[in-house]
Design a protein that fits this description.
This protein has about 55 residues and is mainly alpha-helical. Helices cover about 45% and strands about 0% of the residues.
Length: about 55
């Protein structure tokens, strides 16, 4: 089964990960997001107990 031979595929995987980590990732992280995150106020709802008809 030739797909079990890791010699060509390991090099391709390693090259692609190094390309991503060293070249693409700094370019992607340099973009500024358009919507800055902000904290939302959480609404607290009043919990009412359920009245079961058979109790």
């Amino acid at each position: 089964m030739p797909q079990l031979n890791p010699s060509p595929w390991f090099f391709i995987m390693l090259t692609s990960w190094l390309t991503f980590l060293l070249i693409l990732q700094p370019k992607i992280l340099s973009f500024t997001p358009t919507n800055q995150p902000h904290t939302n106020t959480t609404l607290t709802t009043k919990m009412t107990p359920w009245n079961w008809p058979w109790t």
